Amino acid sequence: MTASRDDKKIITHHRPDLREKLFFCISGFIISVPLTLFIGTFTDHLCAVMPIFYATLCTTAIFTPFIEEFAKAYPLFYRHGETEKSIFTLGFLVGLGFGLSEFFVYILALGAPVSIRLPMIFFHAASTSITAYGIATKRPARFYLTAVALHFSNNFSALFGPFWFIGGVAAVVIAYFLSWRFYRKTSERFFDFECIEKSTEFKP
Predict the structure, then answer these.
(1) Residue 6 lies in a domain
(2) N or C: where does the chain have the smaller number of CB atoms within 10 Å of the terminal CB?
(3) Under a CB-based contact definition with an 8 Å cutoff, are residues 131 and 73 in contact?
(4) Does residue 104 belong to any structural domain of this protein?
């Protein structure tokens, strides 16, 4: 992926093939889910001293959006030489893999209604693609926080039962819309076209 020239490394252009896309979809489960669970063990301890409602609010509505959106975007940060559109697509696929794994946990282990959990598969895909758009346009923090805010709105609304059909549905619809809008704004321009790294090779 890198071509050396004198004392520099030039990152060459690359478009992911079907096998790589499948890997990123699977990485939503094999990388992002374990990372979420690992970080979550620490945040759960921080919130455990609170009364039950506030502990749930702390873990589910506050920490979970930050952790999950970071964990889903994490596999994207090592990619180089991608186009804006391919980074966006890979982000969508990672989120899709994460959403599918969460879907089966909620349905098979917790008995959640399929009709409620099905839209969340694509919510995770959409929110991760929003962060991916930020990575592709070199503004990761802004779009990561956008994804976190939407995730917070969804989770916070879910704590109040039927209120989810207002706040949660709105968050899901907005995430879908932003994902579609940002996809249309991406191009086949290589987002790190000017990225040239200094070689670690020592020269006297």
Answers:
(1) no
(2) C
(3) yes
(4) yes
Dihedral, CA of residue 76, residue 78, residue 79 and residue 80, to nearest 10: 150
Neighbouring C-alpha atoms within 13 Å toward the C-beta of 42: 5
Residues 6+ apart with CB under 8 A from 159: 56, 57, 60, 61
Q: Rounded to whole angstroms, how far apart are CA atoms 184 and 132?
A: 13
**Domains: count for the chain:** 1
Q: Which residues pair with 10 in a beta bridge?
A: 3, 196
Q: What is the pTM of this model?
A: 0.85
Q: 91-100, 106-115, 194-203 — which is least confidently predicted? A: 194-203
* Residue 89 pLDDT: 95
- How distant, in Å, are the alpha carbons of 82, 150, 168, 191 from that of 17? 11, 31, 35, 18
In a domain, 199, yes or no: no
Decide: 9 and 199 in contact? Cβ < 8 Å: yes
Asked if the structure places residue 151 within a domain, the reply is: yes
One-letter amino acid at 29 equals F
List all residues 6 or more positions away from 194 whose beta carbon is below 8 Å from its beta carbon: none
- The answer on pLDDT for 34 being more than 70 is yes
- Distance between start and end Cα atoms, the chain: 27
